[in-house]
Write a structure and sequence with these properties.
The chain is mainly beta and 583 residues long. 12% of the residues lie in helices and 36% in strands. The N and C termini lie far apart (56 Å). This is Laccase.
Length: 583
């Protein structure tokens, strides 16, 4: 303390010294928070585990025998070291969804993008530091459809000594929304790839791994979320479903939304939230109703007209501790059920997303170096001559496909994109992904059949370090329009505008929010509409950008950004770890 007394006395004599004092205190505070930063070690064993749901037991791929997998809790500034050992029969990788991975792209996880897979019997240790992020993220497998069951919450608390920008909740509960097949999900996607048809829809949705009371053989294990009168709880909601955006409501209660994708938001209240796969939403809920039992219910937002979807409802129970015991006198108190939006209620989705704002004014890039326009949508490939009719079971004897800017993304199979870039291996990818659609057309109108067949390719888009990027993401009505949750690895971005129809730069730029737009890692591109995002390319590496409906990434709705190194070590990709899985 004498040191600070001396500085303070000196600063009394010299007002110009006050700047130095502030600087010293700032350095001291940041050194203190760095000193508090911890290294967390975890072991993930990928293994087949018997899991019984909907009356049947499946040999389900899990982490450490848990479904969902373990919740990881860290503080902003901490480092995670996770050793993943693959004891399953499939190749696997783990992606830390939403983690910026500054200079540590080798730990990002998407198969054949930043690493080759961890083969059965092998292991790989993911090492990365959380920098400037707080809130709810999650981790999941990023290989084939393994993420159907291989996923868990990743919770980032504020740095030690800091607090939330909202009143401290009495309790925090992760709410993981999932999707369950009464089958092996790998078999489901393999069958679809073989036939060219759409994959079978799921048989249930889940909350924390449990389908809930409305499904067969499920009510004895329904997830219970306890609360008491007057308490405020923080629910960390994660949509871990494979292919379905979901609505979530709690009967007779309202949510206060305070964050999404590990960024804080200007709080707003709502009776319903909606999340695309990959998205997270932090909400406060208060026990302000008569003590009883209330259903928390999740159901599909299915925006594609006439496309089949799982039209079931998953439930958990918000149970007041002071509520009468359910089995007292042999009478069971049936929980109150919320009224849920219609499956195609796009108006409710739009009203919800329009409320998203950053808590204060933010620094959105205003001068743009890279102005990109990416169409996102489905397609149908004509049956190849060497295929038989069993392999072309899509509409009218075709095979389903998907693309961005008419390029259907093909993952490499011998090297990862990042290794090929880092080692200068030729022939793995090209850098000619188009900045604009090769052909302009009425994107959301009646599209000519000649535009339904995209070109397959492993094309990436190159960005200079520090470049300021704007991307217009435009849905198309090829085969069907649909809400596409588009996720960019290694980056958060500002969503500056959304709208319906075809994006019009003359009239729609006036709608841009350049003051307090929300910061996210996954944007729901509106069905038959568009979204505009902005970010600064300040993280070197190769970063996948894809639709988070896994059926669509399987079909090729993806591309990747190759962000070049900047100047000096701190703007360059780190060297690859020694235990990076061999290809």
């Amino acid at each position: 303390m004498e040191f600070f007394d001396t500085i303070f006395a000196t600063s009394q004599r010299s007002s110009s010294f006050s700047f130095f004092l502030a600087l010293m205190l700032l350095c001291f505070a940041s050194t203190l928070s760095l000193a508090n930063a911890k290294i967390h070690h975890h072991d993930f064993v990928i293994q087949a585990t018997p899991v019984k749901r909907l009356c049947r037991t499946h040999n389900t791929i899990t982490v450490n025998g848990m479904y969902p997998g373990p919740t990881l809790e860290v503080n902003n500034g901490d480092t995670l070291v996770v050793k993943v050992t693959n004891k399953a029969r499939y190749n696997v990788t783990i992606h830390w969804h939403g983690i910026r991975q500054i200079r540590t792209a080798w730990a990002d996880g998407p198969e054949f993008v930043t690493q080759c897979p961890i083969r059965p019997g092998m292991s790989y240790t993911y090492r990365f530091t959380i920098q400037g992020q707080e809130g709810t993220l999650w981790w999941h497998a990023h290989s084939s459809w393994l993420r159907a069951t291989v996923y868990g919450a990743l919770i980032i608390h504020p740095t030690e000594g800091s607090s939330y920008p909202f009143p401290m909740p009495k309790r925090e509960t992760p709410i993981l929304l999932g999707e369950w097949w009464d089958a092996n999900p790998i078999d489901v996607v393999r069958q679809a790839t073989r036939t060219g048809a759409a994959p079978n829809i799921s048989d249930a949705y889940t909350i924390n791994g449990q389908p809930g009371d409305l499904y067969n053989c499920s009510s004895q294990d329904t997830t219970i979320v306890p609360i008491d009168s007057g308490e405020t709880h923080l629910l960390r909601v994660i949509n871990a479903a494979l292919n379905q955006p979901l609505f979530l409501k709690v009967a007779n209660h309202r949510f206060t939304v305070v964050g999404a994708d590990a960024s804080y938001l200007k709080p707003f209240t709502t009776s319903v939230i909606v999340l695309g796969p990959g998205q997270t939403t932090d909400v406060l809920i208060t026990g302000d109703q008569p003590p009883s039992r209330y259903y928390m219910a999740g159901t599909a937002y299915a925006s594609a007209p006439n496309a089949p979807f799982d039209n079931t409802t998953t439930t958990a129970i918000l149970e007041y501790k002071s509520a009468p015991c359910p089995a007292k006198n042999g009478l069971s108190i049936k929980p109150v059920m919320p009224s849920l939006p219609a499956f195609n209620d796009t108006a409710t989705v739009t009203a919800f997303t329009k409320k998203f704002r950053s808590p204060r004014k933010v620094e959105v890039p205003t001068e743009i170096d890279e102005s990109l326009f990416f169409t996102v949508g489905l397609g149908l490939n004509n049956c190849p001559k060497n295929f038989n009719s069993n392999q072309c079971q899509g509409p009218n004897g075709t095979r389903f496909t998907a693309s961005m800017n008419n390029v259907s993304f093909v993952l490499p199979s011998n090297f990862s994109l990042l290794q090929a870039h880092h080692q200068g291996i030729p022939g793995v990818f090209t850098t000619d992904f188009p900045a604009n659609p090769p052909l302009k057309f009425d994107y959301t109108g009646n599209v000519s059949r000649s535009l339904w067949q995209p070109v397959p390719g492993t094309k990436v888009y190159k960005l200079k370090y520090g470049s300021r990027v704007q991307i217009v993401l435009q849905d198309t009505s090829i085969f069907t329009p649909e809400n596409h949750p588009i996720h960019i690895h290694g980056y958060d971005f500002y969503i500056v505008a959304e709208g319906f129809g075809n994006f019009n730069p003359k009239t729609d730029t006036s709608k841009f929010n350049l003051v307090d737009p929300p910061l996210r890692n996954t944007v729901g591109v509106p069905v038959g509409g568009w979204a505009v995002i902005r970010f600064v390319a300040d993280n070197p590496g190769v970063w996948l950008m894809h639709c988070h409906l896994d059926v669509h990434i399987t079909w090729g709705l993806a591309t990747a950004f190759l962000v070049e190194n900047g100047v000096g070590e701190l703007e360059a990709l780190e060297a690859p770890p020694l235990d990076l899985p061999p290809c």
